[in-house]
């Protein structure tokens, strides 16, 4: 990239940051820049793009959307200089700016939006349009053909201010990201009977062994500081691996695990999916 082009991108980023819009550089292909050496492989607990960032405070664009900032000192820092030098465009964190972007990826999606969504500010893209609403909501991809939602925990390319007045986020837009829970292939509520033939008590030692195992599983979930989804799944997997085939798990045990997971922010659907996936992995 030429020095003039680099300066233009940085100037745009600084202008947006001054108006309260958190920004970050994107490489060609619309991807964020990779982790810094401290965070290689997300060792600090962060996950790029749509996931929860970790505790890392390094001054680099190392966590996708979570790297977006309004701090001009960070944007002008030496640590970010290489990123701007190789950047192809400027992106921003819509949720951090208090807006939601409905990304319409083709003409058919734009036609659908004109018939189905409240009129609002529009920004042309290379293939369709971005529709901007005032307010935030969870991000979601593929809510319908050619339509993505970008708001919290996501980034969007800055393509200009657009035209029209920005309407308030309405329920008709929020409803796009609401999906009916998929029916589990094996519901946890059915675990009052053995998963496989057994005598109803733990074959390893005594019922105390099972109670201790459930307590340790609850503690592992409760103490997790990052990667909650993964921790819950792996904990469920461990419990089922140890006790799932001897007929000792009951609704009460499963409820304890689900309660611990939901206290960490997991939804009932996420708990059910994690349990079902663990059963499938173990061939139960």
Number of helices: 9
Classify the oligomer.
Answer: single chain
Biggest beta sheet attributes: 6 strands, mixed
Strand content: 5-15%
Descriptive report:
- By secondary structure, the protein is α+β, with helices and mostly antiparallel strands.
- It has three domains: 3-90, no CATH class; 95-177, no CATH class; 188-281, no CATH class.
- The chain is built from nine helices and nine strands.
- Strands 3, 4, 5, 6, 7 and 9 form a six-stranded mixed beta sheet that branches.
- Strand 4 and strand 5 form a beta hairpin.
Provide keyphrases for this structure.
284 residues; single chain; three-stranded antiparallel sheet; 3 domains; alpha+beta; 9 strands; six-stranded mixed sheet
Write a concise synopsis of the structure shown.
With 284 residues, the protein is of the alpha+beta class. The protein has helices spanning 3-18, 72-75, 78-86, 107-116, 171-174, 207-222, 228-243, 251-263, 268-281; strands at residues 23-26, 89-92, 99-104, 121-124, 129-134, 140-144, 147-150, 156-157, 167-168. The protein is built from nine helices and nine strands.
List the helices and strands and how they pair.
Blueprint: H1 3-18, E1 23-26, H2 72-75, H3 78-86, E2 89-92, E3 99-104, H4 107-116, E4 121-124, E5 129-134, E6 140-144, E7 147-150, E8 156-157, E9 167-168, H5 171-174, H6 207-222, H7 228-243, H8 251-263, H9 268-281
Parallel strand pairs: 5-9
Antiparallel strand pairs: 1-2, 2-8, 3-5, 3-7, 4-5, 6-7
